[in-house]
């Protein structure tokens, strides 16, 4: 077992060497230390360092290490790194990528750079890469591997095994083998285990079982969630005529889901996802990822200020009401965000569909009522004992009403977003908080006006 203390120490020294002055002695030190650092740590250093430092470290790695590190970098960072490397290094890296990974990289590069790299590929690799690039960026066909080992239904098990042995180094996976008929129409799949266990004269058609597949134009997140929900190791990809065009593997699915989840988390907190690591992102890039949403939220928060202005005379009559505004707006925002997060997640994994809108509203209305009853009772007792039972009643009724409203709206907005083709995460936390703040204040002052007899 390797000594983790030694590895970590080497990684720390390598990181220090990269951040210092890069001269010939420093290059020798970097090269020496790089050979002592494991591949995952090298990938982290390349990803989190500045473009210049990453290029220096990358050039020191041998070809196999460089390709392994490059494949584990996000496409946006791959594109930046490519533009900081010499042409011979770039050619080797691009040739070593799978067609789907190559297509994703080309999508991030300037058009002239992508064309130049494409022209350096051999005819077969260029054809497969072009086929993947032909699909929209959000389609799963952009992320499938066109290098798929398929079996024909008329083959015997012995003939199929002979083909597998001859082509085992080419495809991305051979553990699940699609079976096709004439015209490459997908008939099903055969696992490698079942093929090995079959008698030599058994027909592939007798071994085939029904497969879960996806069309190449299906949204990448939808296809990936389907893949994970059925716990697949690979999934055939077909065109509109059910002809086999590629295969989707677990590593591609995990990359897509990680990227989508990172995007949802960032947008639910009011920012845009970073296309590279936090430490290697410039200050300008960090500001750019946050400023737009802050401006949007600042403008929408003006609505809350206007509501307070409308009810300013009520606050003058009963100043104590101002003390509870943070409690009520905070409770409404948190309740709405909880509901939105739950429904957004349910939409992502296919547990909820657009047609379930009525059921979701009814469920969240009841959830909000139960939460509001508990919080309202507590608010009524505490506020009543301290500030009088009339104030306690206002607080209790407001908490009940705000929780019902916020939970219902929080469950509703992600489905509306899905229906109009927007990202449900965009409609969740930031906008729900602002909406619930303004609406909660209207509810609060309306109840206060009625219960306390204000005018």
Reconstruct the topology from this structure:
Elements: H1 4-19, H2 24-34, H3 39-48, H4 51-60, H5 63-71, H6 75-82, H7 87-96, H8 99-108, H9 111-119, H10 123-133, E1 151-152, H11 157-167, E2 176-180, E3 186-191, H12 192-197, H13 204-207, E4 214-215, H14 220-229, E5 234-238, E6 244-249, H15 250-268, H16 283-310, H17 312-317, H18 325-348, H19 357-387, H20 389-419, H21 429-452
Parallel strand pairs: 1-2, 4-5
Antiparallel strand pairs: 2-3, 5-6
Helix pairs in contact: 1-2, 3-4, 3-5, 6-8, 8-10, 14-15, 16-21, 18-20, 18-21, 19-20, 20-21
Protein name: Magnesium transporter MgtE
InterPro entries: CBS_dom (IPR000644), CBS_dom_sf (IPR046342), Mg_transptr_MgtE_intracell_dom (IPR006668), MgtE_N_sf (IPR038076), MgtE_transporter (IPR006669), SLC41_membr_dom (IPR006667), SLC41_membr_dom_sf (IPR036739)
Subunit structure: Homodimer.
Keywords:
three-stranded mixed β-sheet, 455 residues, MgtE N-terminal fold, metal ion binding, SLC41_membr_dom, Tetracycline Repressor, domain 2, mainly alpha, CBS domain, cell membrane
Q: What report would you give on this structure?
A:
The structure is a single chain. This protein has 455 residues and is mainly alpha-helical. It has helices spanning 4-19, 24-34, 39-48, 51-60, 63-71, 75-82, 87-96, 99-108, 111-119, 123-133, 157-167, 192-197, 204-207, 220-229, 250-268, 283-310, 312-317, 325-348, 357-387, 389-419, 429-452; strands spanning 151-152, 176-180, 186-191, 214-215, 234-238, 244-249. The strands form 2 sheets. The protein has a 3-stranded mixed beta sheet with strand order 1-2-3. Strands 4-5-6 form a 3-stranded mixed beta sheet. A hairpin with a 5-residue loop joins strand 2 (176-180) and strand 3 (186-191). The chain is globular, with a radius of gyration of 29 Å. The N and C termini lie far apart (78 Å).
